[in-house]
């Protein structure tokens, strides 16, 4: 009996199952309070065969309030729990089958916000539509499905960004190894173009959650990117004397290191590949990197106060047509004195809570394995 890979996740209300079986034909699905039985012809780990899934649930579910969705790459189930609570495991038995995997994107605990996918809740219960003759069949002329296009696009986007930041790190390393401390004065001029392009392309990361290509906070992503753009285009690019300071080189190294860790994590995540070491690194690297980034940015701001007082660049004085004045050095002082530390605290708190929930989930999954 062949079994496909099954990925599972949960929140307090529902169980999420994903059967990794492509081009399913003639499926048979039997869902009851205590178990799920699935038999179908499709392409899985052992090629095109008949695959079977039998799951005896840890606790009863509500079949009439459960849903499933099918596409040509997988079959997704959302099963309503009879009681609102987190299950310690999926199966009633203690032994975990080798074909059962954890879907980290669908695993939610009380330490994080409930981001459960509500897409299926607005649909009719389509178990009654299993007799559809076109179920699971793919036309030869059909192109990539929207879900396939989303995954290919996100993978290529993350790969492009990863290669770009690796290029920056390699060039910085080679220049420093060749010229030593003399490379500090010219590193910005050599790499500013690449750094600007990569961060401008990151504007797409604000659009991705808006069009539901990714999950996450649009507000947090927007504020993070706006902060980066202000430092690169205004605080550094706007003051030539700042470009030759060592702190700019350190800041570029910190930005680059953070992104080189972040983008591979998202690349594998798009492909539904969970690498524990990479996930741990992604949720841990910020602990040393974020404080260094914050204080490097503070050093840039503090040094720019005198520069912008001298040049009066990016400031607006009366009288003018808009009848409005703006003095950038004053804004920098206000930010450093009243906003800098609260913002740092909020960012650290958010990252810590996310890391705490992820680490707890990884430990729980390792015990179940």
From TrEMBL:
SUPFAM superfamilies: HSP20-like chaperones. The chain crosses the membrane at residues 152-174, 218-236, 248-265, 326-348. Pathway: Lipid metabolism; fatty acid biosynthesis. GO terms for molecular function: very-long-chain (3R)-3-hydroxyacyl-CoA dehydratase activity. Keywords: Coiled coil, Endoplasmic reticulum, Fatty acid biosynthesis, Fatty acid metabolism, Lipid biosynthesis, Lipid metabolism, Lyase, Membrane, Transmembrane, Transmembrane helix. PANTHER family: VERY-LONG-CHAIN (3R)-3-HYDROXYACYL-COA DEHYDRATASE. It catalyses: a very-long-chain (3R)-3-hydroxyacyl-CoA = a very-long-chain (2E)-enoyl-CoA + H2O. Belongs to the p23/wos2 family. Belongs to the very long-chain fatty acids dehydratase HACD family. It is found in: Endoplasmic reticulum membrane. Pfam families: CS, PTPLA. It is an enzyme of class 4 (lyase). InterPro entries: CS_dom (IPR007052), HSP20-like_chaperone (IPR008978), Tyr_Pase-like_PTPLA (IPR007482). This is Very-long-chain (3R)-3-hydroxyacyl-CoA dehydratase. Residues 1-91 form the CS domain. Catalyzes the third of the four reactions of the long-chain fatty acids elongation cycle. This endoplasmic reticulum-bound enzymatic process, allows the addition of two carbons to the chain of long- and very long-chain fatty acids/VLCFAs per cycle. This enzyme catalyzes the dehydration of the 3-hydroxyacyl-CoA intermediate into trans-2,3-enoyl-CoA, within each cycle of fatty acid elongation. Thereby, it participates to the production of VLCFAs of different chain lengths that are involved in multiple biological processes as precursors of membrane lipids and lipid mediators. It is a multi-pass membrane protein. GO terms for cellular component: endoplasmic reticulum membrane. The keyword DNA damage does not apply. Its EC number is 4.2.1.134. GO terms for biological process: fatty acid elongation; sphingolipid biosynthetic process; very long-chain fatty acid biosynthetic process.
């Amino acid at each position: 009996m062949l079994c496909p890979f099954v990925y599972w996740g949960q929140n307090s209300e529902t169980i999420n199952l994903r059967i990794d079986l492509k081009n399913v034909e003639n499926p048979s699905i039997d869902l009851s309070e205590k178990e799920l039985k699935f038999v179908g012809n499709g392409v899985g780990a052992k090629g095109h065969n008949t695959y079977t899934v039998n799951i005896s649930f840890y606790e009863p579910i509500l079949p009439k309030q459960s849903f499933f969705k099918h596409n040509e790459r997988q079959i997704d189930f959302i099963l309503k729990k009879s009681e609102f609570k987190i299950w310690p495991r999926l199966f009633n038995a203690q032994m975990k089958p080798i074909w059962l995997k954890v879907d980290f994107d669908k695993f939610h605990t009380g330490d994080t916000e409930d981001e459960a996918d509500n897409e299926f809740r607005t649909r009719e219960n389509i178990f009654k539509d299993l007799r559809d003759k076109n179920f699971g069949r793919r036309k030869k002329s059909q192109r990539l499905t929207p879900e396939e296009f989303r995954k290919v696009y996100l993978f290529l986007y993350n790969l492009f960004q990863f290669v770009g930041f690796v290029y920056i790190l390699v060039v910085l390393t080679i220049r420093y190894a060749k010229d030593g401390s003399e490379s500090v004065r010219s590193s910005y001029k050599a790499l500013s173009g690449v750094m600007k392009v990569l961060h401008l392309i990151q504007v797409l990361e604000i659009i991705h959650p808006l069009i539901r290509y990714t999950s996450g906070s649009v507000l947090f992503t927007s504020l993070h990117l706006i902060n980066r753009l202000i430092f690169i285009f205004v605080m550094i690019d706007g003051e030539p004397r700042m470009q030759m300071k060592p702190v700019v080189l350190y800041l570029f190294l910190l930005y680059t290191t953070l992104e080189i860790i972040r983008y591979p994590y998202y690349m594998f995540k798009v492909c539904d590949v969970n690498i524990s070491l990479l996930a741990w690194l992604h949720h841990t690297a910020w602990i040393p990197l974020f404080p260094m980034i914050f204080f490097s940015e503070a050093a840039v701001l503090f040094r720019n106060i005198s520069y912008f007082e001298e040049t009066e660049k990016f400031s607006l004085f009366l009288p003018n047509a808009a009848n409005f004045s703006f003095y950038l050095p004053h804004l920098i002082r206000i930010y450093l004195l009243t906003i800098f530390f609260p913002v740092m605290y909020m960012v650290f708190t958010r990252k810590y809570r996310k890391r705490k929930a992820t680490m707890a989930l990884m430990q729980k999954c390792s015990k179940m394995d």
